[in-house]
């Protein structure tokens, strides 16, 4: 057992449903046994109840739950930064040529390692990962994720039209390859499978029907929706009988509580009502929406319709894997919407980056907050020069924060992956930056 002592904050409540002040909880110590949180409270109380247990001091900064990224593309980790293009041109010029390279299994293996190590370095411990179009590349991703004990839900990306020929597969092949991957990887350790048509623009009715057949096995579903106006118009032309974009999925019964749709920047009210009715979630990807000029996400309308929303980095269109950056951009975009926006507090931002994602992925009984009984996936955010006179702007601001909520605001505004001082996966510290003052372990 280990007692972790520091400024520990999480959002066991839902700031969109309740008073944000009530949604946040702060404690000074956690007791972790075999990777599971066994107690929380004051350091004095935990020490008294468990005398002799080692105490790991995490002084300075904040310990928060591991981040949950609900939309990120594994094959695009080498393709970040394609600025200046709208979605369909960006796909053609940046993303898809890179995705074709994952046909080479050795290439895919290297990319999988870079991608997963990037997630850990950014403090992301759980993710719904948009996979590759190639089954061997998915084997590489799942193998590497299992080795790292990351909480990964992912699947083979399916398309049978309108993409480079190398990325297309007929529905029968898609069905067979996906079924095989589900058998090998779904519910194995922390891994789960997600049926993943790229978007209905590149998936025929026959392909979407194959997807529906795969869903019977208790797996997850993810795809894209309503990202960009040209994309939406193209989809409308491809499915002349559909009521709206969501209907292209709904008529194949692909809108379920285990469905996560990325973007939804331009939904109509009927789509929001349908998402809420079926308990499906939306992955909001604000830096991607900004970089591609896709639009300003209508968060207020989602909340008012009762649609669950979490955050996604959408790398490679997004501007990196660090979820606090997405949270800050989400905040900016809501401010820019004026009265149509929702003014987000630091508590909202922590919730969106952690527990909202766990809820979207059906993992909130295991991760997303620090409740007793949950797995200890955590991130310690603390600038390396916290104790140095002067120091970085974040160090200066943290030293002058009024309270934990104020410290959260300063972290969401200023922190970068360089400020990730520690990451734990089920109680095992997988990232440790040594030679940091205040990180010592006290003697028994
Ligand atoms: Zn995406």
How do the helices and strands line up, and which of them pair or pack?
Elements: E1 2-10, H1 20-23, E2 25-33, E3 36-41, H2 43-49, E4 55-65, E5 67-73, H3 87-100, H4 105-121, E6 124-130, H5 135-148, E7 151-155, E8 157-158, H6 171-185, E9 191-197, H7 205-215, E10 220-225, H8 229-238, H9 245-250, E11 259-263, H10 269-278, E12 281-284, H11 286-291, H12 299-305, E13 308-311, H13 323-336, H14 346-353, H15 355-360, E14 378-381, H16 393-399, H17 404-414, E15 420-425, E16 428-432
Parallel strand pairs: 1-4, 5-6, 6-7, 7-9, 8-9, 9-10, 10-11, 11-12, 12-13
Antiparallel strand pairs: 1-2, 2-3, 4-14, 14-15, 15-16
The protein binds zinc ion.
Zinc ion (ZN) binds at residues 71, 73, 130, 224, 262, 314.
């Amino acid at each position: 057992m280990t007692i972790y002592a520091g400024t520990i904050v999480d959002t066991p409540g839902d700031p969109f449903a309740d008073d944000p002040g009530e949604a946040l909880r702060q404690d000074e110590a956690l007791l972790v046994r075999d990777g599971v949180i066994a107690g929380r409270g004051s350091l004095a109380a935990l020490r008294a109840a468990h005398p002799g247990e080692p105490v790991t001091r995490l002084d300075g900064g904040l310990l928060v739950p591991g981040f949950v990224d609900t939309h990120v593309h594994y094959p695009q980790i080498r393709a970040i930064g394609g600025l200046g293009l709208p979605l369909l041109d960006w796909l053609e010029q940046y993303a898809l040529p890179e995705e074709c390279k994952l046909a080479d299994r050795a290439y895919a293996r290297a990319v999988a390692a870079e991608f997963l190590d990037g997630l850990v370095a950014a403090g992301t411990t759980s993710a719904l990962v948009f996979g590759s179009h190639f089954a061997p590349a998915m084997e590489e991703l799942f193998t590497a994720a299992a080795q790292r004990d990351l909480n990964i839900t992912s699947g083979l990306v399916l398309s049978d039209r309108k993409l480079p020929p190398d990325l297309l597969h007929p529905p029968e092949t898609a069905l067979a390859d996906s079924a095989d991957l589900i058998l090998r990887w779904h519910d194995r350790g922390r891994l789960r499978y997600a049926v993943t048509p790229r978007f209905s623009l590149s998936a025929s009715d026959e392909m979407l029907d194959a997807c529906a057949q795969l869903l019977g096995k208790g797996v997850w579903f993810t795809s894209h929706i309503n990202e960009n106006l040209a994309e939406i118009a193209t989809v409308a032309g491809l499915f002349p009988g559909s009521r709206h974009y969501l209907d292209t999925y709904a008529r194949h019964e692909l809108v379920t509580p285990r469905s996560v749709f990325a973007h939804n920047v331009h939904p109509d009210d009927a789509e929001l009502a349908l998402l809420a009715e079926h308990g499906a979630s939306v992955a909001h990807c604000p830096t991607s929406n900004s970089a591609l000029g896709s639009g300003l996400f209508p968060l207020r309308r989602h909340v008012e319709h009762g649609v669950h929303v979490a955050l996604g980095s959408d790398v490679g269109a997004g501007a990196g894997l660090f979820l606090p950056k997405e949270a800050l951009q989400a905040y900016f975009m809501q401010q820019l919407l004026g009265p149509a926006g929702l003014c987000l507090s630091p508590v909202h931002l922590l919730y969106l980056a952690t527990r909202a994602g766990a809820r979207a992925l059906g993992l909130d009984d295991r991760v997303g907050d620090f409740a007793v009984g949950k797995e200890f996936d955590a991130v310690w955010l603390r600038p390396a020069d916290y104790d140095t006179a002067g120091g970085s702007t974040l160090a200066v601001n943290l030293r002058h924060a009024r309270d934990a909520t104020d410290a959260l605001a300063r972290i969401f505004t200023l922190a970068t992956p360089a400020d990730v001082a520690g990451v734990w996966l089920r109680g095992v510290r997988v990232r440790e930056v040594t030679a940091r003052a205040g990180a010592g372990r006290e003697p028994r």
